[in-house]
Amino acid sequence: MAKIKHNNFLDTVNDVFTDAKQEGVMHLYAEGDDFSGRTIGINNRKLFHFGTTGYLGLEQDSRLKAAAIEAISKYGTQFPLSKSYISNPLYRELEETVTAMYQNPIIITKNSTLGHMGVIPNAVSDQDAIILDHQVHWSVQSAAKVLKNRSVPIDMIRHNDLNMLEDKIKRLSDRHKRIWYMADGIYSMYGDFSPLQDLKTLCQKYPQLYLYIDDVHGMSWIGKNGTGYALSELKTLTENILLFGTLSKTFGASGAVLVCSNKKMYHEIKTFGGPLTFSAQLEPASVAAATASAKIHLTPEIYTLQNDLRERVDYFNDLLKETDLPLIDHNNSPVFFIGTGMPKTGYNFVSRLMKEGFYVNLGIFPAVPVKNTGVRITISRHNERAEIKELVAAMVHHFPKSLEDTQTNLPRVRKAFKLEVKTNLKESLPSDLTVTLENSIMKIDKGLWNKCLGNHGVFDWEGLRFLEKVFQGNELLEHNWKFKYLVILDDKSEPILATYFTVGLWKDDMLAKETASKAIEETRRTNPHYLTSTVLGMGSLFTEGRHLYLQSKHPLKQQALDALMQTMEILEHQTKAKMIVLRDFLIKDKLHDYFQGQGFVRVQMPNTCKIDLGFQETLDSYIAKLSSRNRRHLRREILDVESTLDIRFLKSCDKLQLNRIQELYNQVHQNNLGLNTFSFPEKLFQSMSDSPYWEFIVVNTLEVPEKIIGVMLCYKNQNISYVPSFVGLDYDYLATYHTYRQLLFQTIKRAINLKFMHIDLGMTASFEKRKLGAKVEEAFAYIQTSDNYTLELMGVLE
């Protein structure tokens, strides 16, 4: 029933990239009549270039240029034939030279993306399984997902978590021939390494384990013959390892290379590898330039180039050690990442550095989590020591100014990246606001709370007192929530912002597609807390509606929002929450830009539905407002059936009735994987029966009046809003009696009779509710995670 409108990943990426483009830090055009590599022309200015992936500067080597020019003169701009038929005359020398570099069989591919698409479906059999590092390059993940069509299981581990990897190997080993672990040699954002020595040991322990390593960012600047980081660690390439390198980036030309010592696998991939067969081959200029580079790699000159780069990298590292700049990973790769935390801080910092004369890359979602935005700096042989020193000085000067401009601070940034925090975050809360944070609604003034948030939903003061009693002191971990109440006042004690949070255990797949949840629930039969996380959520999983009160025209509104963000960070740290979720926002709330700038990803929820009743509304006047088509629907499927049913409004229920109501609620819950949550504690239903604020609309058949076939659990909010919070249904009777539609109609009828002003119909089933006169609006949640693991895992499992 609760079909969530799943977030379109591309919409989120588009939002983030559009912001960065508007800030002038992405989708730029280089300018100028020439390009040296040391500087780059942008917006009529020459900037020192600290964004290249040509770490050794070979793309500017005169030997590569001359080879490319000669190849074009002799063979033209392209060789328009599939390589399966015939390769251009220069290919043989390239393949021989690169083979000499690796001392293993190789296959040249057009680029690494097409290479992965050709190799992975060929190398992985239907009897195999795949495990991805969640930070492995997008091109590897995309190629692996194709195998889901062949029912090859694909799983994922947190970045470099070898304990998690071993657990998954153990679970898969009895059912699969080979288990492929796919990872990068060096990761392109933070410049951190894959633990290849430990992986090699794991391969010896588990002979089924095969490694697929994408080492394009480890190429040329390290290793014998410049064959990269992975091979420098592994020393030899065994038959259970496939290695991808690149002929572009540091290599200075174009294309990619697969290295495979397994002769049988090599033959199968080379004979027919999808895009390797049907895609165009490398242009003659690229082949010639790559050959010229490979020849350099086979001479001692490559080690001179590597040492030259290493001196610059070491110098940059030494300078950074003297600063407070938050370098995310300390290593000896030419890739550095300075964390800024929120995207808007990253935009500001990059803009400032560009104005100062330095071009650097913005590291942003989806390459990193939204709140882990930062500046990606690469060091190359083009960079001179003087400008490296000037860059560090510029960063030291502008980084704190960027933090100040975007209302953040260094402790918040360090906390976002799980770095040591030297300052108490509470010290940074605004001093011109009164920020109150309590752990019980009993500590909050009832009149103040209801003035801000008391007119809708089950989160007026009494409703929250009810929830605190139900969701505390229970046997199961998932049935116990911590409650946090935030109220922000100005100096006249006028509320600017109010909300509440719950901290509890959520299923990681709550917002995933039903196919993913169905597979995960099979594992939860024996491991009930599999793929679950502690979540700090605005509102609760029991309540729906506008959980945030914000006085939008107050002059301190912005400061109050910033205080909200910082308070959530404090709570996240204290509760060890893995995710923050802000729920049930409407387009008209106009907070999207702010939340996205603070590192939240927007997810579309099921539509929210509401009915506003007239002051003297009667059932007849209400029905008269429906369209003629909906009135026909009402008569045929609801009113004509009503006379065959026994409908009651119960303020309390006996034990047998409560058992039946719980049974019907469980039927709906178990059929609702589209919004997959834990069930509620058993004492909930008895507590409802004991409370003066709850009542039950129950539907029985006249033939068997003692058997309830449907129930609506309704909360009475201050005689203002009537809230049908949850429904229970016997699916055996649903089609015959249109039970759900009948319950919706009886809810409206009851609210009118009791003179309520509103009916909060909540989310889901908006089509049915609209037919009965509900106003339907799109609703959104905003999610912030400590990493992208859960989001990417759900994408793999769906």
Automatic annotation (TrEMBL):
<dbReference type="Pfam" id="PF00155">
    <property type="entry name" value="Aminotran_1_2"/>
</dbReference>
<dbReference type="InterPro" id="IPR004839">
    <property type="entry name" value="Aminotransferase_I/II_large"/>
</dbReference>
<protein>
    <submittedName>
        <fullName>7-keto-8-aminopelargonate synthetase</fullName>
    </submittedName>
</protein>
<dbReference type="Pfam" id="PF13480">
    <property type="entry name" value="Acetyltransf_6"/>
</dbReference>
<feature type="domain" description="BioF2-like acetyltransferase">
    <location>
        <begin position="629"/>
        <end position="769"/>
    </location>
</feature>
<dbReference type="GO" id="GO:0016740">
    <property type="term" value="F:transferase activity"/>
</dbReference>
<dbReference type="InterPro" id="IPR016181">
    <property type="entry name" value="Acyl_CoA_acyltransferase"/>
</dbReference>
<keyword id="KW-0808">Transferase</keyword>
<dbReference type="InterPro" id="IPR015422">
    <property type="entry name" value="PyrdxlP-dep_Trfase_small"/>
</dbReference>
<dbReference type="InterPro" id="IPR015421">
    <property type="entry name" value="PyrdxlP-dep_Trfase_major"/>
</dbReference>
<feature type="domain" description="Aminotransferase class I/classII large">
    <location>
        <begin position="49"/>
        <end position="394"/>
    </location>
</feature>
<dbReference type="InterPro" id="IPR050087">
    <property type="entry name" value="AON_synthase_class-II"/>
</dbReference>
<dbReference type="InterPro" id="IPR038740">
    <property type="entry name" value="BioF2-like_GNAT_dom"/>
</dbReference>
<dbReference type="InterPro" id="IPR015424">
    <property type="entry name" value="PyrdxlP-dep_Trfase"/>
</dbReference>
<dbReference type="GO" id="GO:0030170">
    <property type="term" value="F:pyridoxal phosphate binding"/>
</dbReference>
